[in-house]
Amino acid sequence: MGKGSGFGKTILFGEHFVVHGVPGIVSAIVSTADATVKKAQKGINVIDTRKGAKGYAEKKKIQQIESIERMLKAMDMDPRKVAMDIWLGGNLPGFSGLGASAASSVAIARAIAEEFSLVLADEKINDIAYEAEKAYAGNPSGIDNTAATFGGLIWFKKNLSMDSNIIEQLSIQKPVEIVIGNTGIVANTKAMVTGVGERKEKYPTKYSAIFRQAEDLTNEGRIALEKFDLPKVGELMNENHRLLQEIEVSCKELDHLVDLAIKNGAFGAKMTGGGGGGCMLALTPGKDLQKKVALAIENEGFEVLRSKIGIRKD
Ligand code: PMV
Q1: One domain, residues 157 and 25
Q2: Residue 314 belongs to a domain
């Protein structure tokens, strides 16, 4: 029996823009997807027991099968000849936007490696999970699988010429409380990423101006995080949300959760991940503020996850 885990994540700055080579900042969260793999007699069976948004597992089923096939090929294994049972669990909820697919791919890749006695470095696990992510995201940046594999707070820049990406661990004074609010809408990351790509082609002038602002924002975000200037980080998150609205990946439920978090004192809030549903991230330093914002969101009937960004890796 082989076992493996992958971290969930939340993107602080730069989702979508990161697909096109703009840097992004992502933080792993402590919640993980956990996988157990056991060789079997016939076929590949997935038993998914993760707590998720209603319908998450069903909606992602076809993409999940494709992702496992891609993963096996990247491990030089023939999906038609491998027989195994895969159990998926862990405390990372299947909310869209938390990198649940990448976390599960990393967990499964690690569990397969253990069950089939392959010794794979984290860099290789990251590459395998990136292949798997293509099933969920079409043209992924690689930011999700990087956070899922390595954990920590990461500066990420996709190298568009296909050489290795820039991945730097950032450190901040101490971990900071956040609230993640779930719209409950299961989003299709692939469709959202494709839509941005199409609009970028169609409106080059408008989009290149927005993309330049996104790049400036991530750079400023890094400085503010490293100085531990949390009001500034929050302000930049709000600006990032406005840019994401402009590229049409937010939705009224996400905008509502952002407003609610700000009204209740969050330092900043933005959608996080692919958008079109999925999750909102609010920066809420201190347990009291975190509780206030979380309760305000729960009182309106939305699910929340209380977590932290910037947790040190070990
Ligand atoms: O929705 P998620 O958790 O899969 O995050 C997607 C992040 C994007 O930037 C939209 C896509 C990517 O591959 O970077």
Answers
A1: yes
A2: no
